[in-house]
Amino acid sequence: MLKTKKSLQPGPGSRFTATFLFVLASVLSVHAQSDADGRATSNPPKIFTVVEQPPTFPGGNEALQKYLDDHLKLPADAGKKSKKRWVLTRFVITETGDIESIEVLKAKNDAVAAEVVKVIENMPAWLPAKQRGRTVSFRYDLPVQIR
Fold first, then answer.
1. Which residues of the chain fall short of a pLDDT of 70?
2. DSSP string, the chain
């Protein structure tokens, strides 16, 4: 048989104690969510990888390909070993369609990778992803071929 301490058993004061602990936890939670100036801070938005409606470049995939073809310039020091050069990139398309957090996941040439990043940074805003009818941030992987 399990024995419990008398102080852990419910009694007349336990309801007050539970209410007090709930209020204390709420106050601490609000305090933890404010910055040094006492202003409330928001949690960073969740970045989705699967959504009901993915983000789209204005004009669709053909317009994206045209944008890349028109703006990517192969640097002089890129080398001529291969006719096809691929750079695998990843970035976040925010709830407003802006591009953030650009990463190069795979590239054989740093100069080519830098050119791809520059072109992605200057892209127009995308139509953002949607999940349950609301716009959301989305992590997008984009392989870019330099011809």
1. 1-44, 77-84
2. -----GGGS--TTHHHHHHHHHHHHHHHHHHHTB-TTS-B-PPPPPEESS-SB--B-TT-HHHHHHHHHHH----GGG-SS-S-EEEEEEEEE-TTS-EEEEEEEEES-HHHHHHHHHHHHTPPPPBPEEETTEEEEEEEEEEEEE-
Can you tell me the distance from the alpha carbon of 81 to that of 34, in angstroms, rounded to the nearest whole number? Answer: 55
CATH topology classification for 47-146: TolA/TonB C-terminal domain (3.30.2420)
Contact yes or no for 111/102 (Cβ under 8 A) = no
Cα 93 to chain centroid distance, Å, stands at 7
pLDDT digits (tens, 9 = 90+) for 52-89: 999 999 999 999 999 999 999 877 766 666 566 789 99
Domain spans, the chain: 13-42, 47-146
Q: What is the pTM of this model?
A: 0.67
Return phi, psi of residue 59, to 5°: 95, -5
